[in-house]
Design goal:
mainly alpha, Serine Threonine Protein Phosphatase 5, Tetratricopeptide repeat, flat
Length: 80
Amino acid sequence: SNNSLHLFIIYNDIGFTYKEQEDYTKALEFYRKAVDIDEKYLPENHEEIATVWSNIGTVYCQQHILDEALICFERVTKTH
């Protein structure tokens, strides 16, 4: 639904803000909320989900958790 898409975007934006503040735990929390909305309410592989997976991957890179980052970046390629 339209409300779900708006909430998805808001969660992604909040996650991005925390990422910029280097609060990676909070960033991941909000990115995961966006992913949950995507999985429950949005069309499969809609274009915005690639951005969220890329953002999650970037957070893992910044934390030097490269195996998780790779998984996220692989998900990005599956959404295109």
